[in-house]
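Lay summary. Proteins are chains of building blocks that fold into shapes, and those shapes determine what they do. In this project we predict the shape from the chain. Here is one chain we studied, written as its sequence of building blocks.
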Amino acid sequence: MNAPTLHIAANRGDFAETVLMPGDPKRSRFIAENYLENAKLVNDVRGVQGYTGYWHGKRVSVMASGMGQPSIGIYSYELYNAFDVQKIIRVGSCGSFFEDLPLGSLILAQAACTNGNYAVQYRLPGTFAPIADFDLLRRAADACEQKGVIYRVGNVFSADMFYDDAHSDMDWAKMGVLGVEMESAALYCNAARAGKKALCMCTVSDCFVGNGDKMTVEQRQTALTDMIEVALTIA
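And here is the predicted shape, written in a compact code that computers can read:
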């Protein structure tokens, strides 16, 4: 696949080997401006901002994915296949199904269930189980332990609908699924198909049990420092 692509106006070499991928372009800019040294804007097609800079001497990129599996499916596919990116670490937000995952805690997605059809394209004779890269997962868990961050490792649910008329999200909790987000399954599928690495880590921004606590819009953009620092540490 040639670069630049339809959705990323950059050249080969503009992205680092590892890309942090929040959903929100404003979160991408926040990470670049507050954590990376000598950050350079390398993509701004459709306002999906991508930057490359340095974290403690290590070259790292950050680019937004947008919302949902189709969106992250496009951007992660192009990064893996046109820009020689080897690892994508999703740094997103999610809703938690368990009281021991309060606002600000982290979910490290070992695997991703979904009600979407992203994996249908591979024409497999069964159901594909999208999973994280174990090395990235293990190092993220170690970093959480060292930082004293509240976290759990387990399954997440990648939903295709944000507004679910059937209100069925909580049904996944009875199978031990920790929380709901909208992108991990497609990212893990693309990584598997490309022979690359991926990890999704999410900060709990909504609690579906207890008092139903929620982060503000501003907090969702800027109050995710533990997750960002863990992601940069393992990058």
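What the prediction tells us: The chain has one domain: 18-234.
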